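Justification of resources, computational component.

The compute hours requested in this renewal are based largely on the per-chain cost of generating structure records like the one below. Each record pairs the submitted sequence with a full structure-token output. That output is archived, and it is also reused by downstream analysis tasks.
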Amino acid sequence: MSNIITAGNATNNGTSISSDTSGVLELKTGSTPTTAIAVDASQNVGIGTSSPAYKLDVSGVIRGTGNIYAGDGAAFIFGTGATSYLSGSSTSNVLTFLTASTERMRIDSSGKVGIGTTSPTGILNVKGTGGDALPATSGSTQSAGLVTRLQQGGGIGSVMDIGGNGGTGSWIQVTEPSNLATNYPLLLNPNGGSVLVGTTSVINGSNAIGQFLNVNGGRPGIAIGNSVGSSPTNAIIFINSNGTVGSIQTSASATSYVTSSDYRLKNTIAPMTGALAKVALLKPVTYKWNADGSDGQGFIAHELQAVVPQCVSGEKDAVNEDGSIKPQGIDTSFLVATLTAAIQELKAELDATKAEVAALKGA
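The structure output for this chain reads:
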């Protein structure tokens, strides 16, 4: 190698420009001169390296205050080879991000962003390929993993947050913009694993999985439609480990409440007896409700339970952990069989009496 220009002192050459037989031109600097800029025989330029592999090969950090132009269709490559790079085209006005030489994200000419898709249809279009498209983050606090704002009429219509703390605190919430801190019309899987609609906390200490608080001033809380027309259609079905055990059906003009009663589900079938005696023990009453003073009529749960236990759920005087009452409930549909059998027994007695009177008259 021969020095073309040398600048410095007698002890060391602080700056030099030199070339060698391979055609590499080097600019060296420093008290122990190292290559600052090198130009090889292929006109590749290296900054911080004496063996440039590309037209511009930089070893170190690049800082710029102006635009960097790579040319139409050119790519900015990250890492080694073509494993990760950014590519743009002025003809199609598309900016693409690639890893392992495969496109992962793009920004099209209208500003739409597509992740996992080359044809974004919205401002942000995310398409999964077998896993979660937008997995939520987790951590020590309930910080949102995803926040998306859905615009309506030029403003923010609602906000959806997805996040969690790695356990039962995972949640999805859809929020009205008027009060982002407390107004959650829909809250999925908060602490305790419930679905809450219209409220951010359970209703009166309930542990129900699904809870709906009607805050809309007289509007229905839940509406279930039937688009089949006049055909009976299950609006709700009830299932346990034995299969379907009941349903609520709608038709063109009526609703049916159905419970399982197939003979193939039963055994030891026998006629009901003693029904008239049971009916005689029933204590129908009138009353007023504590909540609003309105009139009511029917039965007292524990009194009915003593006669027809199947009609009543819960236990007399039961309370919740906080001391509030755990009220009993009744289903008077279970009285239908008892009342029917009682009518039949009464008719049999009446028929026997009629026969006796007829016999006496004939005598």
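The mean pLDDT is 78. The chain has five domains: 2-58, 70-133, 139-220, 233-265, 275-343.
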